[in-house]
Amino acid sequence: MKLLRDILYKVQLVEVHGSTNVAVAAITFDSRRITKECMFVAVRGVTTDGHAFINSAQSSGAVVIVCEELPAERSDKVTYVLVADSSSALGVMAANFYDNPSESLKLVGVTGTNGKTTTVTLLYRLFKDLGYKVGMLTTVRNMINGEEILATHTTPDAIELNRLLRQMVDAGCKYAFMEVSSHSVVQKRIHGVRFAGGVFTNITHDHLDYHKTFDAYIKAKKGFFDQLPGDAFALINKDDANGAVMVQNTRALKRSFSVQHLADFKCRVLENHFTGLHLSMDGTEMWSRLIGSFNAYNLTAVYATAILLGRDKMHVLTTLSTLNSVEGRFQYVRSDSGIIGIVDYAHTPDALENVLRTINDIRGGNESVITIVGCGGDRDAAKRPIMAAIAANNSEKTILTSDNPRSEDPASIIKMMEAGVEAHNARKVLSIVDRREAIRTAVALAKPGDIILVAGKGHEKYQEVNGVKHLFDDLQILTEELNLKTH
């Protein structure tokens, strides 16, 4: 329970009708979760407007209504708080309700199109292995000092986020690392949260189904750095042309990392093998179990973040060298016959190109690369032909297949992908709707030494079709098929 007057601290108020001395047991913006002594925040969402549920909230026992527009019928048993922006207010109120947990943590947010999950997960593992109690929020899983909590979104809503951060503080965590999605910035889910630092990995074509234009997507990412306080750091990938844009208006300390250019934190790839990376990190050589040049960027971002948080360079590098790859990110298996299988979450054009470039950089030259790729339904359709073109241009054989079709017809999605395949590549492209059959076909076509890439789903253990999630694990199925192959 917390008094309303304490919850409203630092909220930009327009009017208050009723007492602020009322006790609030819970906050929600979901009318289905209204309980007695609850505060209901009417948020204007993408598909629904919370103001339409104010009457329902009142009749279900809400004692406080926060809104941008007062209802025509008001109860004398309810306090009405009028604000200019319910989403912003929700973030601040959620932080106050949970006693502003982010102020008791060194919280670092990582944003970008690719590399967020890997970077956050490696930071969590690194600081845990350095001996600290740590929290982590990612697309794949949430962790509080070794205990796993199911993740439902890239960035939780403001209430859930502050609840998780409070649990981290109560568990004794000193550091926390989280993914910050463009959606969460636009929807103000991180409003009211204090960050010790922000990391920008890169930005490429993605989420245009939501943001509509690439410029709007860039501005959404930039919005995170605009919010950083003056005593935080803003770490950008200097090799991405949009890195400088991210920190144009930030008050935070600006720092950069790079693999190709001069930067505050510089990495050079000395050797790149299927067994790992040999790197020079700020002039000191290290070996990593992670594979691929894109992981050189992830490792450099992790190293730079640790140094900016005051950790010892040699201790950081020594511990980094012991870390394994992240689930669903360039996971590598080899069959008895010598066929190499790789499963990767690459679901954007840039990510797919990076993975295929890495494979082609490492391969000896005589092997064939067979790529299995699909595109999700009800998502950015513009990238579908681009993904197919990238796969066909960088592989000896490409199989277009189903990803998570959701409510769309998977065959129609594949048709859109096929449109991107150039005429000279058509002969080496197959279309197989059934994803398991696509993997089975790739294994059948592969010869010893060949490399099979299964892209798009990575860590996911399901395939979503018409609102139903069916069990489906790319790595498990690929491994099973490789084990069944006798020659």
Rounded mean pLDDT score: 93
- Give the structural class: alpha/beta
Helical coverage, percent range: 25-40%
Query: Rg from C-alpha positions?
Result: 24 Å
Alpha-carbon distance between the two ends: 66 Å
The number of E-state strands comes to: 26
The global form is: globular
Low-confidence stretches: 206-211
Relative strand content = 15-25%
- What is the overall number of helices? 16
Protein described:
- The chain is α/β, with parallel strands linked by helices.
- The chain is built from 16 helices and 26 strands.
- It is globular, with a radius of gyration of 24 Å.
- The model is unreliable at 206-211 (pLDDT under 50).
Keywords:
16 helices, alpha/beta, 487 residues, 24% strand
